[in-house]
Amino acid sequence: MRIVPGATHLFEEPGTLDQVVKLAKQWFQRHLKRSEHEDDEPWFESGTVFADRAEAGRELAERLLRHKIANPVVLALPRGGVPVAYEIARALQAPLDVIVVRKLGAPSHEELGVGAVVDGDHPEGIFNEEIIAELGVSREYLEREVEAQLKEVRRREGVYRGGRPRVELKGRTVIVVDDGIATGGSIRAALRAVRRAAPARVILAVPVAPADTIRELRREADEVVCLSSPASFYAIGQFYHDFHQLDDEEVLRLLEAARAARHPSASGTTGATG
Asked: Which residues are registered as beta bridge partners of 203?
């Protein structure tokens, strides 16, 4: 049973009926999805299911609005983090920018990450020394892989920003956003790169992540806002009804919409907001 604070049995108080609708929706989403997989392990047992990334972003924004954040800037990990971050930036009336992180793949097994790298004024690399040692990955290979992925990072930043400068982070409250976290390697690289830009505060905001990953990441950020940390976690997509693969066109459209909302006279030019 869930209690809606301040509500009478008729739910006539402002906003209480909306809260009932939201709670009912979450209950039905969990139990309908569970019935579809009744022979499987109940993987939605402890987690919220979001309709899509935009809904997750709106729920995060609602949580962040309670914090009275001063001078915020929102950084999204593309592509999946952009729709989530867009809703947060819109609610906070904050600039939206991207921070591009690339996984470092193992030799002959690119899908297996041995680290992550992020470019910017303060490039940052994160390495999984345990896997590197186990696979016998050479430093020469890592240097080549880092350079190759940094090149791709810069290419993507050029596409997303359209030649515009990065949003200034120094002295600001930086909110780093993704659509979810699994192992945390990419987001850790992003947080460390942001920290080196001398912000006033760093907040990590994600819809869903494993509890143990969140505990580790609390050392990297001043504050972590995570809507759901389920006990059973297999993949980020299990917590979304719509988890389609975004393309660059969709990312660019959201970045432009965010920029146009802050600078209406400058609409029509692609890039990050300032």
From this structure: 175, 223
Within this chain, do residues 106 and 166 fall inside the same structural domain, yes or no? yes
Note whether 5 and 105 are same-domain residues: no
Range of the domain at 49: 41-266
Which residues, in sequence order, are bridge partners of residue 179? none
Helix (H) or strand (E) segment spanning residue 149: helix 139-161
| CB distance 95 to 229 below 8 Å | no
Q: Are residues 6 and 73 in the same domain?
A: no
Calculated CA dihedral for residues 71, 72, 73, 79, nearest 10 degrees = -170
My answer on whether 9 and 75 are in the same domain is no
Residue 97: what are its φ and ψ, rounded to 5°?
-140, 175
Mean pLDDT by 10 residues, the chain (274 residues): 45 51 52 41 55 98 94 97 99 97 90 85 82 94 93 92 92 98 91 95 98 95 96 91 96 96 62 58
H helical segments located in 66-138:
81-92, 129-135
**Does the predicted model carry a pTM greater than 0.90?**
no
pLDDT of residue 231: 83
CB–CB of 132/114 below 8 Å?
yes
Q: Which of 92, 100, 81, 130 minimizes the C-alpha distance to 254?
A: 81
Distances (CA, A) of 200 to 61, 63, 169, 244: 20, 20, 8, 35
The backbone region for 157, taken as left when phi is positive above 0, alpha when psi lies in -120 to 50, beta otherwise, is alpha
